[in-house]
């Protein structure tokens, strides 16, 4: 019956017997429903009709007391021989129509009954979990937007402060190529240093060898003179 019923919550004396609410509500709502359905298109009708109190039915278990108020849930049955403009599953006014009737005639219903209507069921209405998610998602979105902005700012301010080594590590192909070139340069520098040291050692060896030969030649000359 969810798609064919609606409801209102009324501030009413909790000591009043619930059956005393039924007849006044039926009379009042049948009148405003008849007035609303003068627009046959709005009620999916081929011709105008008149609703009576007997066409206003209450959902099982209603009306009932809830949190200091009276909750009334009801549905409206079409009178006998009603012709619908388009075929519909049940001979009832749809939930959307009931909600629109209450919305447009809320003041009239309240004045006729002398009730203070706290709230009424609007259309479309979702199940309790969907309603909770619709309510909860709003603060989540509000909190998430500044958080994402902060993270974006923090990330952008962090990257320029990274060391050159970090850029080489985190870089793409260009960073890897630069690291490889630097490695090859270091190897070449080390090889050049080794070659330089080898040349120095060779030069020292040649100087020492040449010195010995000079001494030998001088000694030979002295011996020749003495003779």
UniProtKB/TrEMBL annotation:
User: Membrane-spanning residues where?
Assistant: 132-154
The entry's keywords: Membrane, Transmembrane, Transmembrane helix
Pfam families (UniProt xref) = DUF8077 (PF26284)
Record-annotated DUF8077 domain positions = 1-124
Q: Which InterPro entries match?
A: DUF8077
Report the protein name in the record.
DUF8077 domain-containing protein
Q: Which organism is it from?
A: Strongylus vulgaris (Blood worm)
